[in-house]
Amino acid sequence: MKKRIAIFPGSFNPFTRGHQRIVERGLKLFDTIIIAIGRNSEKQVEQSEEERALQIAELYSKNPRVSVQTYETLTVDFAKQVGADFILRGVRTMKDFDYELQMADVNRLLTGIETVVLFAETDKVNISSSLVRELQAFGKDITDFLPETK
Hints:
This protein has about 150 residues and is of the alpha/beta class. The chain has helices at about 15-30, 50-60, 75-80, 95-110, 130-135, and strands spanning about 5-10, 30-40, 65-70, 85-90, 115-120. It has a single domain, classed as HUPs (Rossmann fold), CATH 3.40.50.620. The protein is globular.
């Protein structure tokens, strides 16, 4: 059976608990997650992408299913280069979620690569029914992806 690989663009702080939760939940869906750090020469940053990649790699060093790579192309092009089946995106708000769903449609039409969107904090927002159906279609247990009820 083919391994399922997802790339997770490290677009928000990977040292936050929300980012780490997305990686943890992503590992329940995929065999491998590549945290992708895009290079942007025009962006003013305190540390280089390579330095950031090394710090993130150290954070996940005990998990052989998580790796970190830098890239200079579009996310979808990088996904193709590394053989990723999915792009894993993390969101914090419903507005972010709506935007990512639109981008997921564009990515799927242009490249055929699917996007899976997970919330950073499952207890603060509801998940869309279409995402629940998608996860169920993959044969995955969805209880870890739903908001906690009191």
